[in-house]
Amino acid sequence: MYELIKKDGLAKRGRLHTVHGVIETPVFMNVGTAAAIKGAVSTEDLQGIKTQVELSNTYHLHVRPGDEVIKKLGGLHKFMVWDKPILTDSGGFQVFSLAGLRKIKEEGVYFNSHIDGKKIFMGPEESMQIQSNLGSTIAMAFDECPSSVADREYMENSVARTTRWLERCKKEMNRLNSLEDTINQHQLLFGINQGGVYEDIRVQHAKDIAKLDLDGYAIGGLAVGETHEEMYRILDAVVPHLPENKPTYLMGVGTPANILEAVDRGVDFFDCVYPSRNGRHGHVYTNQGKLNLFNAKYELDMSPIEEGCQCPACRHYSRAYIRHLLKAKEMLGMRLCVLHNLYFYNTMMEEIRAAIEAGNYKEYKEAKLAGMNAGKK
């Protein structure tokens, strides 16, 4: 159940009650594709850096170690020793990123595994079955994520198919949740809005899927090559047509600035690989902008990544030491940067929630953006 606590303009402060605990929104979900955050980050670490939701990938876990294996081991929560909510994406985006290896039909998608080339079929029912085996808190509907530059005719046909697939997902999810041997009989289902940068297709699709009364609604197919301005234009058009009393999830987004702008437009769920990917390359986020710790100017810098930050890296280590670790290709350097970045994102979400509750979100957003932009000069 989703509870809307406060609105400040379009910004929503909510609370999603799940079988694995309460999710305070707006929330940033920490991406652990193969049931682990890249950068040697343990589940215990996640508890210490304010992680609310861990996100894992259906496709990757299906090909390795196999969703049937994870089910035999008691589900994803037991497997990775995590007792809080987990969201699993449907595998749709990964399947469609394998453009040279797949064939789309009405029943689903035929494709080859990127690991061993083995032939795999995945449709709405298979995606729901895999996610049910994983036992995640929130399952994502199986959709097509078309290219943002697809022509109108292709986009209309693709979106219509995604709607038909969504109806099949809902039916299969209801069936799976009624079975006795299902790990999580309270698994939630989020549908996905598509339509590229065509406002009218997006809006009509939002209206169509809103009628299905799902547990939440995601906006997919953005942050795949269009400009930030185009993304914000689509959000302005689409979000008002998604149910306000359900979570709104912007998939795969993004930078701190993207998140701040999207919250202002009514989005309250986010995920992105940026904080962990950038951290593994020595790029760290601060309230004064992003730093590249490989830069020579940090060689003798004994200050933490950010003064006052309470993350495991900043509480103990200097920029100089972390730079040394990165240059020496020591895994610890990568790990500390990832921990700092995830802590920064999770802390920013706390600040966002507090600002919406206080009714001063716009002022908070402007001050936060000004601080981060000042560091770029």
UniProtKB/TrEMBL annotation:
Its cofactor is Zn(2+). One of its GO terms (biological process) is tRNA queuosine(34) biosynthetic process. Residues 252-258 are annotated as: RNA binding. One of its GO terms (molecular function) is tRNA-guanosine(34) queuine transglycosylase activity. Binds 1 zinc ion per subunit. The active site is at residues 89, 271. The keyword tRNA processing applies. This is Queuine tRNA-ribosyltransferase.
